[in-house]
Amino acid sequence: MKDRRRRGIREGTAGEVRGGPGGEARSIPERIRDRILRLRARGLGSQSIADQANAWPVPTARGGRWWASTVRAVLMQDGAPPIRLRGFRP
Prior knowledge:
Strand content: 5-15%
Helix content: 25-40%
Distance between the termini: 33 Å
Number of domains: 1
Radius of gyration: 14 Å
Number of strands: 2
């Protein structure tokens, strides 16, 4: 990571990540964000959405697989209702 920073490659959020060829921003297509938001609205959690998203022919903004944390970052960026953690009381 330090090496990437030294070369001027900045990493951002799940919705927009810098570091593609030439350092341009890459982002998750709007149709994929909408699909994630619809699944969340139906009550699915981050892990369930990530499991489904891995079957889609669309990689994450960084080109990898979908993880629950990646889905949470997309949801937080788009202002979706927070996901309640089981057994967690603030």
